[in-house]
Amino acid sequence: MTSTMLKILALIFIFLDHIAEFIPGVPIWLHWIGRVSAPIFFFCMVWGFNGTTSYLKI
């Protein structure tokens, strides 16, 4: 799975979490799915930082 696919998957998860946050009466499992998105984004961030060749530009 590429990092772009991971980011799109995390985006879908965070969208479901936002739906559960702002619309009353939705199932609680939408919150649980949405909480998975932050570790995915953090993983992609660290993966991209480790893959860079110039740390001074950051």
UniProtKB/TrEMBL annotation:
Q: Does the keyword Membrane apply?
A: yes
**What keywords are assigned to this protein?**
Membrane, Transmembrane, Transmembrane helix
List the Pfam families. Answer: TraX
Membrane-crossing segments per the record: 32-49
Q: Which top-rank group of organisms is this from?
A: Bacteria
List the InterPro entries: TraX (IPR008875)
Name the record gives this protein: Conjugal transfer protein TraX
Organism the protein comes from: Lacrimispora amygdalina
